[in-house]
């Protein structure tokens, strides 16, 4: 039973890789550049999610424990220390968010680059063949439209995820500030 499941999963994986390979070949070299940008974006997104899940709560507990251990919480020095922790929390929470946003902005531009290169290949083919046979132009049109579609899909999903992470960071920052000021 498990042997047949392993066979099915390997065959399914091979089919999936074959479909991705065909898609990448139809889209041209710009799709590979887009794939690298998307990979870097999702790597940074994963790092942010892991930090929000495990890294920041641990750091927040350290700050709160240090604040509760202070006997003097109203002096100028205590207020400066609390503001320094809030500033450090802001920097830690917003780390890589601008880079993620930049990579997301690059995705549709790479898609447009794919469109331009695909249209250039269509026009070159039309000029060299001297006719406009649809079958010959199909690969060039595919080369022109697939990167645009892929770039837009990647940008839309990236914008959604970026907005969710930015919202989560802002909530954690406000929560920390509220906890530090309420004590």
TrEMBL record:
One GO term under biological process is: protein import
Keywords in alphabetical order, please: Cell membrane, Membrane, Protein transport, Transmembrane, Transmembrane helix, Transport
Membrane topology summary? Multi-pass membrane protein
Glycoprotein as a keyword of this entry, yes or no, is: no
User: GO CC: one term?
Assistant: plasma membrane
The superkingdom of the source organism is Bacteria
Q: Which family does it belong to?
A: Belongs to the exbB/tolQ family.
In its UniProt entry, what is this protein called?
Answer: MotA/TolQ/ExbB proton channel family protein
Protein's organism: Reinekea thalattae
């Amino acid at each position: 039973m498990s042997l047949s499941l392993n066979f099915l999963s390997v065959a399914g994986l091979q089919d999936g890789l074959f479909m991705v390979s065909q898609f990448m070949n139809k889209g041209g070299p710009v799709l590979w550049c887009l794939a690298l940008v998307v990979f870097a974006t999702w790597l940074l997104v994963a790092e942010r999610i892991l930090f929000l899940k495990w890294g920041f709560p641990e750091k927040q507990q350290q700050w709160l424990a240090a604040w509760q251990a202070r006997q003097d919480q109203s002096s100028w020095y205590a207020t400066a220390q609390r503001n320094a922790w809030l500033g450090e929390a802001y920097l830690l929470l917003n780390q890589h968010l601008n880079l993620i946003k930049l990579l997301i902005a690059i995705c549709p531009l790479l898609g447009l680059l794919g469109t331009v290169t695909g249209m250039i290949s269509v026009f070159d083919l039309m000029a060299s063949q001297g006719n406009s046979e649809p079958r010959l132009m199909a690969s060039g049109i595919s080369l022109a439209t697939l990167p645009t579609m892929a770039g837009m899909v990647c940008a839309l999903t990236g914008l959604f995820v970026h907005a969710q992470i930015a919202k989560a960071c802002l909530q954690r920052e406000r929560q920390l500030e509220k906890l530090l000021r309420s004590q």
